[in-house]
Amino acid sequence: MTATSLGSLLGITRQAVSKLAAEGIIARLPDGRFDATDAVPRYVRHLKRPGAKASVSAVNAELRDAQVRLARLKVAQFEGRFMERSDHEEFCTEIAGHFIAGLHELPAAIGGRDLALRRKVDEAVYRLRERMSQEFEKRAAEQAAREMRGEADAGT
Are residues 10 and 62 in the same domain? Predict the structure, then answer.
């Protein structure tokens, strides 16, 4: 049985099942799944232990906090104060494109017919674009590292 199915049977989340397995309270089969006939009695014994109620209360509090966060996000989205990440990325890409196009117009707009001035402005624009590119690459690498650690939306 999967962690999701066992969680449904026990009335807990898939994540809570995985945590119980990691703590050795319930056992995984070699294929990573669970045997309900083994896991249910182990879970019941765990709940009967002194102090188990505190851990169940902590899990319930964590679940309530997650539900509150989800409700707040849904309200923000309904009120138009929330933007999907993909829409935000598309918007930022479009704005960055307009900005970079505008940067390319600066040498001619500032330098006019003065080729030496145009070259200086062009070099400054080039340096700015290089710094921007390095910063974007740095941020992308940081985000990829967060996603690898399971903190996918930590920077959102």
Answer: yes
Please indicate, yes or no, if residue 154 is contained in any of the structural domains: no
CB-based contacts of 21, cutoff 8 Å, min separation 6: 3, 27, 28, 34
What range defines the domain where residue 113 resides?
83-148
Contact 103, 125 (CB under 8 A): yes
pLDDT in tens, the chain (156 residues): 888 888 888 888 889 899 999 999 999 999 999 988 888 888 888 887 776 665 667 777 777 888 888 888 888 878 888 777 888 889 999 999 999 999 999 999 999 999 999 999 999 999 999 999 999 899 989 988 888 887 654 444
- Asked if residue 108 and residue 66 are part of one domain, the reply reads no
| Helix %, strand %, coil % of the chain (to 5) | 75, 0, 25
pTM over 0.85: no
Tokens of 151: 């903190």
Same domain? 15 vs 49:
yes
